[in-house]
User: Fold this.
Amino acid sequence: MLDKIQKDREKRQSAWEAVINYFRKRSLYMLHYCTGCGAIELPPIMTSRWDMERFGIAPMATPRQADILLVTGYASQKTIKRLIYTYEQMPNPKWVLGFGSCTINGGIYWDSYNVINKLDRYIPIDLFISGCMPRPQSILSAMKKLQEMIGKGEAKGYERYKQNYEWYKKNQRKLLERETPFLDGGEK
Amino acid sequence: MKIKEMLENIKKEFPYIGTEIQEEKQARIYVCNDKFLNILTYLRNEKFEHLANIFAIDWIDEKEFEINYNLWSYEYLVSIIVKVRIPRDKAKIPTALNIWDHAQIYEREVHEFFGIEFIGNPDLSPLFLHNWKDLPPMRKDFDTEAFSRKAFDVGEREGEK
Amino acid sequence: MIDRFTELKKIAQKDGHVLYNIFFGPNHPGMNGNFGYVLDMVGSQVVDVRLNAGQLHRGFEKLMEKRLWVQNFSLIPRVCVVDPDPNEVAYATTAEKLADIDIPKRAKYIRTITLEMSRMTSLLMGMGSVGGATGLYTIMYWMLSDRDYLLDMFEWLTGGRVYHIFNLIGGVRRDFPEGWIDKILELMDYFENKLKEYDHLLYNNPIIVKRLEGLAPITGDEAKKWGVTGPNLRATGVRSDIRIDYPYAAYNEVEVNIPIQEDAKGDALARAIQVRLEFEESINIIRKAIKQLPEGPVRVKIGNPLKLRIPKGEAYTKIESSKGEFGYYIVSDGGIKPYRVSVRGPSLPVGLFLCKRDLPKIRIEDVALWMNTYSICAPDFDR
Assistant:
């Protein structure tokens, strides 16, 4: 008997979730935070030529009202700190788009001392866009893809962050709150 | 005024400097450590009023740093680079703040990336790097690839569910 | 003037609640790029400013020491995202000076044309951002969509919209494709007609004039003393242009008329108008360069680029970019990699030092305008 009630509830919930997802995917607010050089391709996408508003995506100035965090390019050590603050300020559900090769594995900055290599070790990423820098068309197609994923309920990065909170925090702390030099010969 | 005459004039004033002409509008002046401020002041008064930037070169084999003052004259349209060598160990050099105001920010940058002390500069706090504990990164003995591997390689997703 | 604000600050410090901080950037809609100021405020008056730089630091100068001479061309345009071509040309010219390579004349002209095009994209962005910071979004939308015409031309020529990686040591990568020159001339006519509309929309707009007039003025002598270069220096009435004073590419053959405003005041309005004049001059330069374009090869042979060695030596090249003097000082020890590359970015003295003088005199709503009229580009001082 109890099983049946449980099952019924789950069924209702998943039906409700599907309806919610349908609406969610058509009204997305993208946080207006230019982390790297990819930011230069955002104005053309927002304005008349490519006009992402026809897909229901609009820029938003504050993290508290945003749904998408678009990490436009490489993240330096200072940026990653601000990215984490920003990400944690955004309410659930939230999605992160990694933009450009440098968010995937460091790209051309793979050996730089100030650019992190794999962004998804610090915050969960739902979708990567490859290229340096990606063309506006590929950004739009990524947005469409993200909408599809949201509609199907596949983009669950924020839940992954909750489940693996300790792991993500450990990685973040290793980088940001270090007390000893990483290499020999460091001073202080 | 041709650049050759100009350098000769400067040499008359300061006989201990070395000069080298790179091209028609570009020359370099080599100077020893304790006299360089006099030359900078002299050049500043001789219409070399634009300080384009200050940068350092790490000559690790010779155990020396070279501080470069990149000047430009709006009147003669000539670029002169004044080069000062200082020993690499506990590098120290007087500030050029009294000659150019914005030398402050360049010196702060050089201090952060090379660890060179500018005596008399009031604000040399770190500006670009976050919580930096290692060697100043622009020094030749700092290995950026090893740092990147050690700091940003967080391993595979073993701990993740 | 300053005394009043130090007084205000003192009052505020005594009265704990009056003074407050605003993090202007990095996550702020008025900020262009990932950079920030921490502003000490009394009411809506800025009284002090602290810097919050370094979010864009990638360690270019270090990375360039680790790459081959030719590989560096992929790193260099990323130093300034809005106006990437001056970096490539400055680096290539310096390396050619060191290796004593004389590039073909046609390559010089192609460099001149691409430089001016890149300049125009950046100036359009500059004009648009003035509109964006005052809330007149029509201006921004127009400029950005017009900028895309130029980006399409770049894509046709080089294959890249934003980063072109078009220059090499010894010339440029390829010649103009067929039909490209007709199209660019057509585009220049389009822009010339558009200029009148820009004037109506932007420079005769009473809101813009009122907001910009008298904002953060600077005299010519002060500007020289504080390291301000390029259009911002010319807006104070100083006739100085590296394209004439220290020519590179084909500027010794193509005539450049420096646009100078009469009775230039050096305030934000003068700087904004200067951008428009520079834009007009760029159109003229492109037309002249295409008229004089010589025939011939576009590149000299340098052998295997992966084994390219540049002889021992050091040299400096400065380039007039849309923001001011871009300079590359390169030291070579005769190896396959540069020994040291030092970059002189035009925004550094303005964005990190002049702000301490200018910002404490203005109100919070003008900070974005101040940044945009000085066309501060964060990547070039963070590097």
